[in-house]
Fold Xanthine uracil permease.
Amino acid sequence: MSRVSTSSVTKEQPSPAANPNPRSVFSVVRQKVTTKHGWFGDYDYRWLCLPSLPTARSKQPPFYGINDELPLVLAITSGLQHALAMLAGLIAPPIILASALMLDSDTSSYMISASLIGSGILSLVQMSRIKLWGRYYLGTGLLSVVGTSFATLSTASAIFNMMYANGTCPSTTAADGTVTRGPCPDAYGMILGTSLICAFLEIGLSFLHPRILQRIFPPIVTGTCILMIGSSLVGSSGILDWGGGSNGCQARPTSGIYQLCPTVGSPHALPWGSPQFIGLGFLSFVSIILTELFGSPFLKNASIIVGLAVGCIVAGAAGYIDGSTITSAPAITFLWVYRFKINVYPPAILPMLAVYVSTTMEAIGDITASSEVSRIPVVGEDFDSRIQGGVLSDGIGGFISALFTVTPLSVFAQNNGVISVTRCANRTAGRWCCAFLIIFGCLGKISGFFLAIPNPVLGGVTTFLFASVAVSGLRVLSYIQYTRRDRFILAAALSFGVGDLLVPTIFTYLFDGVSNPNKGLQGLFESITILLSTPFLISGIVALVLNLILPHDMSQQDEDEEVVNVAQDMEIQVLEQER
């Protein structure tokens, strides 16, 4: 009788059973902290920590659902993985925004701390499932976390450019035409104030039935927006920082403080695009790839942080890190240590409304993905209520985040990958994640360290991060059937989006022919210019409008005839080659 080898067969451990007898909080805590099972459970920590190669894992650990009993060590470990997976996405936006406004290191460090603390607090709200009235809830009841929306970065960049161009923010022009921007913290306050009032749009959208939202924002619209968000950030921030900086030194001026990157007074300052900068960024980028290839599941979930760590170690040894930001950062900090003058910038209202429409679309897709990896049904009233509660929490979070001095937040998608790898969808792990984020934010020295990361190291990592956002958009677009109608909508939307990416200034002079417009009309012109100059906004609007007005019965017969014609052309080409 032959033996069948089971070494290559994946065995799954039995799923943990939910406790049918509810216990008091005190007894649960006592059992957790006083027993080995409460601390470690039956989870295979060897599987979690050993690298993929050369070791081979023959069985996977059990899957922990959203309400299953979770060992304490696993909860802490999984929470840390979620926090590390979010970290790069949380620190990059405030660093980029502060750099665009030329803010000092103390303010920039505070913005990083506020982003971490705000994300931790509002993620707790998103993971809750508070019944309001009728069929309405607040929160998803899933392990779904929120962080600074990347959609805000592209929009804020266009708004800041407009503010510097019209004199709202100070700037000076040198004799050779080089424009040097001055610090403009009030611009950040205007973004916060505008975001605060625009958040009511997403709050209102949350009370629409999810099926209506999905009909208005199908994958062809959401995928186009996400694709353009990631693509624009790669070009406007990631690659520029990889080359040395995006603060003006990328133009390689012949005079001024930006002759060298990041400034002439920085340690190891070099011209933009120098091989040393390219090498540092490439080292961080390759570290991410090697971690994915050889790392353990734990390290794979934190591959972005591994890339930052490796790059910083080499950069520090080579003298590229300025430790002054770490020295000047406070040991302990919290929200509202620095405050901004909250105001509303009228030309930014329409773009920020579009941002909240985008975050609504992101929330629907990410909550659906979270439900799938958490083994929660993605159809039915329960799922619809999770969508509604998540979008409502997103909208309220946008309002509260502005009060927290943080730009709008949205549901993070990368944590779904952590759930998939660790097989832990338990909300207890999510609460530990929030605790870690709040702790990281309160420790001011950590924010000071993040601010000291050299631009090339940050650029190598954020280029990968933003490209991952673009790939998420492609994944959403893969759900469409690519009928003639779909291809037409996508082509029209990308015509504007890709055009903006390649020629960012095409709409800058659109209203120059209008002489002496009044203040209100000028504000409208600026608002339209911002919309047209932001790739994901204009492409999303085009896709949305065309999806609503083009008939769905756009001749399937023509589609079939087109397929037949293509097949005939291929047959003719084959016959000609045979001859």
Notes: Residues 1-14 have pLDDT under 50 and may be disordered. The chain is about 65% helix and 5% strand. The longest helix spans residues 72-100.
